[in-house]
Amino acid sequence: GDIDCPTLVICGSEDQLTPPKYSQFLVEQIADASLVLIPNAGHMVMLEQPEQVGDQILDFLRVQAKHLGR
Fold it and tell me: For residue 10, how many other CB atoms are within 10 A of its CB?
């Protein structure tokens, strides 16, 4: 099915299993998606750069909450 909500795609800039070009493809297919490339991270981006990933998720959620008027 189609994804019809804001979507955050996070990818490690050094991911060799699913390189960033595949994340970019996802973003191009999802209407309201954005891509964040985390520097110095591979496929295990959440384990390799947890603080950066967490910050990006929190920023995304803050923006979404503002759009909802909360």
Answer: 19
SS3 26: helix
The helix (H) or strand (E) run that includes residue 50 is: helix 50-67
Residue 40, H or E segment:
none
Neighbours of 45 (CB within 10 A): 22
By 3-state DSSP, what share of the chain in percent is helix, strand and coil, each rounded to 5? 45, 15, 35
pTM: 0.90
Q: Which pLDDT tens digits describe the chain residue by residue (70 residues)?
A: 689 999 999 999 999 999 999 999 999 999 999 999 999 999 999 999 999 999 999 999 999 999 887 5
Handedness of CA 15, 13, 11, 32 (dihedral sign): negative
